[in-house]
Amino acid sequence: MSRLIVVSNRVSAPVDPAAGSAGGLAMALSAALKTYDGLWFGWSGETVETFTGELKHQDRAGVQVALVDLEAQDVEEYYNGYANKTLWPLFHHRVDLSAYERSYGEGYERTNRRFAEVLAPLIQPDDVIWVHDYHMIPLARDLRRLGVTNRIGFFLHTPWPARQLLVTLPHHRRLVESMFAYDLVGFHTEEWLDLFRDYVVSEARGELDGQGGLECFGRRVQTGIFPIGIDVDGFLKARDSAGGVRTYDRMAASAAFRSMIVGVDRLDYSKGLEQRLLGYEQFLHDHAEQRGKVFLLQVTPISRDEVDAYQDIRARLDALAGRINGEYSEMDWQPIRYLNRTYRRDQLAGLYRAARVGLVTPLRDGMNLVAKEYVAAQNPDDPGVLILSRFAGAAEQMGEALLVNPFSREELSDAIHKALTLPLAERRRKWEALMQVVRDTDVAGWRDAFVRALKAAPISGNNAPANAA
Ligand code: ADQ
């Protein structure tokens, strides 16, 4: 049986899976690596003065991991720079925040080349390689240049941007051309795949081959849609565990018959947090009768704090939450509880379950797993209501949620009111339909569908070593 090699910027295979802090993706990929006797390769997260390419091999609960340190300049230009300051904002349609620094592009190319050079000697003839996310788009091209002829697949966890925005990126064509060194390229939704095709056909003069493939740059790549999900059974177990039940009880007692609205997001400008708070403020303004009867619990761990744009949004959110609380709080009631911290999965599950409304309103999001976690955590007899941005990839499947335009504070206000007053029968009907989707798009199914499609992808000349131009 061929081995599976998973490649991602950070390797999240848990050292202690029983601790319950690892996400569904980490668990699903770890399980696959055990089944396929595979290897997980990526950056160690450590910085060294000079890149050596030395590998650190670890066994993490039966999963083989190979890690490499990066030098400070790589971290600055490749990771903080091109990945987080150029591609992430661009792919989330924030061209205003995208930094187009030549040194970032060079650092991205250099670091990917380094990853390829370190990884190539580990690859055996029958291995299947699965590369994840925007940090490593050119990796297959660099591996091909080193003579790697194995099947290589790529999955993008973020949205793909509209062509009109992608062309603002210097060397956009080089980036897209490098994707044609893969055998399979996968996206979460039809919409992201359509946007990718649009670039290839309209900008690069490529063609669809009618079988899910694209031809361009003298190469062919298979494409597909693979909507990611959560580990449903694992999440239900966490919800029903002692920790999950304890958190639920604690929140139910703390809510004291008030309705809780919950938001859980990394602190990121793509998650629409400012717009969400403004929409909630509008709701408090529009529905004075609800003041004192509801509160918003917004759980937002700080992320990418080295990047200016993240420090800015953090300061704006602190100010906004403070202003709304200052304006509307009573002696015995505060409208927003705003927390910058992470919780274990069992605690999150208990929190979600205690919330009458789940507020998931990103401005643009590849999929959004919080939407699926919120649904999975609900009590089937008395489920809460999911409010979901129409701009999250999850909206393509979860049409039974209350879909909103997160840019409109009035629409958010109306949706919050509707969610709080929806009759039980309607809540149940919506929840059942949504729960079916959550089950149908389980993370293990996503993983297996991708690996199957990669193994079945037609080989079309990509495996010939590319010239080193
Ligand atoms: P993210 O942008 O990180 O992922 P998301 O899909 O919502 O977004 O996943 C976040 C995960 O972090 C969830 O599992 C959530 O439970 C967890 N999390 C958030 N806040 C937390 C907290 N306070 N404590 C503990 N855990 C917390 C990227 C893309 C998404 C895509 C995923 C998977 O941006 O669009 O859905 O990858 O492909």
Highlighted features:
10-stranded mixed beta sheet; globular; 469 residues; 6-stranded parallel beta sheet; Rossmann fold
What's the CATH architecture of the largest domain? 3-Layer(aba) Sandwich
- As a percent range, the share of strand residues is 15-25%
Q: Uncertain runs with pLDDT below 50, 5 residues or more? A: 464-469
> What helical percentage do the residues reach?
40-55%
In total, the number of domains comes to: 2
Measured between the Cα atoms of the first and last residue, the distance is: 34 Å
Sheet of most strands? 10 strands, mixed
Secondary-structure-based class equals alpha/beta
- Going by CATH, the homologous superfamily of the largest domain would be Glycogen Phosphorylase B
**How many beta-strand segments?**
16
What are the bound molecules? adenosine-5'-diphosphate-glucose
- Physical arrangement of strands within the biggest beta sheet: 3-4-2-1-5-6-7-10-9-8
Separate helix tally: 16
Would you tell me the overall average pLDDT?
94
Topology:
Elements: E1 4-10, H1 24-35, E2 39-48, E3 55-60, E4 63-71, H2 72-91, H3 102-119, E5 128-132, H4 139-145, E6 151-155, H5 163-166, H6 172-179, E7 184-187, H7 190-203, E8 207-208, E9 213-216, E10 219-225, H8 232-240, H9 242-255, E11 259-264, H10 273-286, E12 294-299, H11 308-328, E13 336-339, H12 345-354, E14 357-360, H13 369-377, E15 385-389, E16 402-404, H14 409-421, H15 424-440, H16 443-456
Parallel strand pairs: 1-2, 1-5, 2-4, 5-6, 6-7, 7-10, 11-12, 11-14, 12-13, 14-15, 15-16
Antiparallel strand pairs: 3-4, 8-9, 9-10
Helix pairs in contact: 1-16, 2-3, 3-4, 8-12, 9-12, 10-11, 10-14, 12-13, 13-15
The structure holds adenosine-5'-diphosphate-glucose.
